Amino acid sequence: MTSENAPAPGSEITLRVNGKPHTLYVDHRRVLLDLLREDLGLTGAKKGCDHGQCGACTVLVGGRRLNSCLLLAVTLDGAEVTTVEGLGGDGEEPHPLQRAFLDRDAFQCGYCTPGQLCSAVGMLAEAAAGHPSHVTDPAAPSGRPVPLDRPEIRERMSGNLCRCGAYPGIVEAVEDVIR
Amino acid sequence: MPHTDTALGAPAERLEGRQKVTGAARYAAEYPLPGRAHAWPVPAAVARGRVAEVDTSAARALPGVLAVLTPGDAPRLAEPEDATLAVLQEPRVPHRGWCVALVVAETPETARAAARLVRVRYDSEPYDVELTEDHPDAHEPDVANAGLPGRVEHGDPEGAFAAAPTRVDVAYRVPPLHNHPMEPHATTAHWDDDRLTVYTSSQGGTTARSVLAQMFELPEDHVTVVSEHVGGGFGSKGTPRPDLVLAAMAALRTARPVTLAYPRRYLPTVVGHRAPTLHRLRLGAAPDGRLTAVVHEVTTHTSRVKEFVEQAAVPARVMYATPNLRTVHRVVALDVPSPSWMRAPGESPGMYALESAVDELAEALGMDPIRLRIRNEPVHEPGTGKPFSSRHLVQCLREGARRFGWDERDPRPRSRREGPWLLGTGVAAATYPSSAVPATATARALPDGTFTVRINATDIGTGARTVLAQIAADTLGTALDRVRTEIGHSDLPPAWLAGGSTGTASWGWAVHDACADLAARLAAHTGPLPAEGLDAHADTAGKADAEVPYARHAFGAHFAEVAVDTVTGETRVRRLLGVFAAGHILNPRTARSQFTGGMIMGLGMALTESSTLDPAFGDFTECDLASYHVPANADVPAVEAHWIEEDDTHLNPMGAKGIGEIGIVGTAAAIGNAVHHATGVRCRELPLTPDRILAGLPAAG
After folding, report:
1. Does residue A142 form part of some domain?
2. pLDDT tens per residue, range B189-246
3. Looking at the annotation, which residues of B are catalytic?
């Protein structure tokens, strides 16, 4: 038997997803996106390209926005993951950004939408923490919250492709929650 | 129709919106059927030839692999009408990327790993993937896409052009383009004895069902097709693609439910693309701007699998009055992937070329391009002589000019500068046909005062589910929240696919008729409703497809402002503004998204999107989203869509024209014309990338 024919190696990990702990035995090749979709049935995170090029799989890991298709699940033992299903918390009410996306018709087919929402939540935290972007004035004081005007929002949301072209609504929706 | 003042024309929120923003909306690959397996395709690695041998031993030896289907052993299917669906049926390889094997395994990881272990030996043959204007195999087809005649002409276009005092004779090129909906083409298939159920990412479940029934030789009622939510399509999911057939074969072979989500990188070769078009435009005009000759000649490619002719010369039959017209298509069959529909096939590349050439003519005449267009406004449709059911292009141009501030424009190129940036503005017109196809629908009144409308329509993001409920609510004289729409399931009354901007007109017509009938039945009914409710059914066959003595089209006007960096050659769009005349707008919220979404795809066509058939490999070079650049948020500036309400009684009961495609038509030309105004550089090949602009800048001084 060649190494190619051996059963796929795996490991047991424990991670919290939307506040709930899960202990799973994961194939070492499994990425977080497939763990969410196939093992946990959380299909909100979408597979658009599986190569970190489209952002449809964006989730929050430890509060940071990441492409879940590029994260090997086995590296996430102990991680805290939030998906679109968990954005609203336990309540019936959606997250203010989800409400704003509805108000602004910030989507059409809806396939990139969970990634856009998670990305926007992560992006707001980055700006609040003073992370500069490509369009931030280099003279701006470092470490201070970055005000989010339209160019900042567009730049920071550019890791999430939308083929329907809902970008104007997405920018307006983000503006709605920061006002 | 009876109107309440609430539903039609109201900016109703998408009925499935809450599901989409919470992640609850289910797409084709997201049905976790018990025992579900995963499939992974093996794409052909040669551009032309035959599969001589497939060695599957290493793949099959991998633990977790359930089956490997090859051309030698895949289930034999009846020959489909669409030859792109005859996958794994014979060893012939018509183009690179054609599916030559399919692995089915317990997990997607194992399926992917095993696909790499499949060894395919080919007998390869010389191939040709290069489209040229003078290709010796080019022929003139009788019929282009959408059943349109390949050639339409009248008068003496050659003589009139030669005699014209002002002439423009220019060549434009549009490269191959990819639809790339965010949801890859995917199907989950499941057999229960001799009954097949598929969850598929399709723009039309009725067609998917009949294709499966025909190919697997099943009665139609043994096939169930579910397409509840579809992550975009833009034409590439119009009719079934190979994922549907492959998933059904894999499920049959393994006796397991199987999901095949086609990998992104493999999509461009199997789901269709916008064929490249080479245009020659000749416009002849009198000194007052009146067109004396319009000649639009298009050369395009198709595959060896089937003939698809991008009907790019067609808009010249619609747009401008001229006594001498020639529009003609030539097509070359090459060893390339099969082209198909991409948002506004024909109009989109055709209007890029035509509207750019009109801008060149305006410059040659020293005339304002809006005035030139208005000067050539036809009374009847030039190609057919039919009167227009409605045509408000001039109003769109004037309203757009007012909103955009066109009158303040200095027409001289290179007249505005901001540091290293040259600024310019451009205008172009847009057109797209308004048609309808027959559909069926039922409407039911329930004793609790609510209504259910059922029709196998598909909402690929257009807002169809919502607007159909609005049509029903108005026709029934009830509130929108009392209407439930059931769509996206083949148990529902059959209807045509979401394509050609026909959805609202076609499905809406059937829903309207069913609801009108139900309203009449309710009016005649006395006493409480029976427990099962009261039904009405409608079939618009003979009505929706009736011949009409009118040319029916939507029109629009696009305005663009760009800044071009003289150092890098980069073009940034600052503003896009569109004004459309598309009948009654039934839902301003979703309509605006349709218009602006189309304009943004047009921005991509103008500036970022391009694909290349590499002659060395015979494959698309830009096959994924890292190399094929669909616009990102930072590429998209202020985009505005406005409309002129039209009252057109020759369309359908709603008076609505389709709006899904016209937004892309004209956008690329408006941007290209703005780049010329900014820089004096006339790029005649899309996209307008920095290398092309820079190459022109020094010459332009």
Report:
1. yes
2. 999 999 999 999 999 999 999 999 999 999 999 999 999 999 999 999 999 999 999 9
3. 661
Closest-CA residue of chain B to A38: B32
Between CA B195 and CA B203, with CA B199 as vertex, the angle to 5 degrees is 120
Given a contact cutoff of 8 angstroms between Cβ atoms, the answer to whether B572 and B678 are in contact is: no
A45 chain-B contacts, CB cut-off 8 A: 23
B633:A38 CB<8 A = no
Give the Cβ contact number of residue B641 at 10 Å. Answer: 24
Say how many domains are in chain A: 2
Q: How far is A102 from chain B (nearest CA, A)?
A: 6
Residue A136, domain member (yes or no): yes
Name the residue range of residue B571's domain: 143-177+274-434+549-696
> Both A66 and A133 in a single domain?
no
Indicate if B509 and B565 belong to the same structural domain: no
Cβ-based contacts of A8 with chain B (< 8 Å): 63-64, 109-110, 113
From chain A residues 24-83, the ones with a CB under 8 A of any chain B CB are 27, 29-30, 34, 37-38, 41-51, 53-54, 56, 83
Residues of chain A found within 8 Å of residue B20, distances taken between Cβ atoms = 107, 110, 113
Non-local CB neighbours of B23 within 8 Å, separated by 6+ positions:
A42, A43, A44, A45, A83, A84, A85, A114
CA of residue B430 relative to chain centroid, distance: 15
In degrees to the nearest 10, what's the CA dihedral of B110, B338, B345, B240?
-50
What is the nearest CA distance from A144 to chain B, expressed in angstroms?
A: 23
Number of residues in chain A? 179
Is the residue at B57 inside a domain? yes
Please give the tally of structural domains in chain B. Answer: 3
Among the candidates A86, A111, A133, a domain finishes at A86
Residues B334 and B483 in one domain: no
Query: Which residues in A lie closer than 8 A to residue B232 (C-beta atoms)?
Result: 108-109, 111, 163-164
Q: Per-residue pLDDT for chain A (179 aa), expressed as one digit of tens each?
A: 344 456 789 999 999 999 999 999 999 999 999 999 999 999 999 999 999 999 999 999 999 999 999 999 999 999 999 999 999 988 788 999 999 999 999 999 999 999 999 999 999 999 999 999 999 999 999 889 999 999 999 999 999 999 999 999 999 999 999 98
Same domain, B421 and B514: no
Chosen from A17, A58, A105, A161 to mutate, greatest number of chain B CBs within 10 A: A105
Q: What is the pTM of this model?
A: 0.97
Residue for token digits 């094997």? B101
